[in-house]
Design goal:
The chain has 217 residues and is α+β, with helices and mostly antiparallel strands. The protein has seven helices and five strands, in the order αααααβββββαα. The protein has two domains: 87 residues, no CATH class; 81 residues, no CATH class. The longest helix has 18 residues.
Length: 217
């Protein structure tokens, strides 16, 4: 694997054109287009997102450090790139009947969470086990034959409210009356509730649906 597959080159070219229409300053450089095409080809051939496997597939021509550096440091407008990829995919499929949906699947995704954004302790509904993980919401554009991820957000519990809930349960178990227990703290806007996040996702999905020139849902 020394260069992107031909049909992936075509996709990246169409993707860059769509990026230019969404935001003129978001267009990819020649190096970024090649890197993205190479990574997509690597994902197809290795069935993974792994720099080490991409390096081996290229027989060492492209190193892990260089591939990961592009991902971490390149000034890519990832948000617009996601929207542009949806646009190109829908045009290729010629399927314009779609609706927006939300996915709140309660799945345990990670065992190592020290460096994961907004990870916090939560109870897994299916097993009843409490673990450190993240609760995420995804909004999707859904058709009769497929669905496309259009964005995501993370829920992070307010630490002060979590501590109050734990202490309130402890005091209640000891028999302390409600008037003698600490009052509930004022919510911190830095930790929005689930409904607020869902509302933001819906607003975002409406804007994207308008961008794709589809009928309102």
């Amino acid at each position: 694997m020394h260069e992107p597959a031909h049909f992936i080159k075509t996709f990246v070219t169409d993707l860059d054109a769509a990026l230019g229409k969404l935001k003129s300053t978001a267009k990819l450089t020649q190096l970024q287009r090649f890197w993205l095409g190479f990574c997509l080809t690597g994902m197809l051939l290795t069935n993974s997102v792994c720099w080490a496997k991409f390096e081996r597939a290229s027989l060492g021509e492209y190193k892990i450090a260089a591939l990961s550096w592009m991902f971490r440091e390149a000034k890519v407008a990832w948000h617009y790139l996601l929207l542009a990829s949806i646009l190109v995919s829908f045009r290729a499929a010629r399927n314009y009947r779609r609706r927006a949906g939300l996915d709140e699947s309660d799945r345990s995704r990670s065992k190592r969470t020290k460096r994961i954004h907004k990870a916090h302790k939560q109870k897994h509904k299916a097993s009843g086990v409490t673990s450190t993980d993240k609760l995420s919401f995804y909004w999707l554009l859904v058709t009769q034959s497929s669905h496309y991820s259009g964005g995501f957000c993370f829920l992070h519990a307010d630490p002060a409210l979590t501590a109050w809930t734990k202490e309130d349960k402890r005091l209640k178990k000891q028999g302390m009356s409600k008037k003698d227990r600490p009052v509930i703290p004022v919510r911190n806007n830095a930790y929005p509730q689930k409904l607020s996040l869902l509302y933001d996702c819906c607003k975002h999905s409406r804007m994207t649906t308008a961008t794709l020139k589809s009928k309102p849902f």
